[in-house]
Design brief:
By secondary structure, the protein is mainly alpha-helical. Helix content is 65%, strand content 0%. The chain contains 1 helix and no strands.
């Protein structure tokens, strides 16, 4: 291998590593933004209204279908 090819390979590897680090940083930022957006949507949901159902409903489960 010549010195030029070694230098070229080293430069290419450094560029690839930098590109990978930038991609990971952008991905982390996108995940953080998505997480905060999902949290905001969940907090925007209204509180569930209490169900006005008879007290006997929901006491038994039919296990034979």
């Amino acid at each position: 291998m010549s010195v030029n090819s070694i230098a070229s390979l080293s430069t290419a590897m450094a560029t690839t590593q930098t590109d990978t680090q930038i991609g990971v940083a952008v991905l982390k930022k996108a995940i953080d933004i998505e997480s905060s957006s999902a949290l905001a949507l969940l907090q925007a949901l209204p509180a569930p209204a209490p169900a006005n159902l008879p007290s006997n409903l929901g006491q038994n489960i039919n296990t034979t279908a």
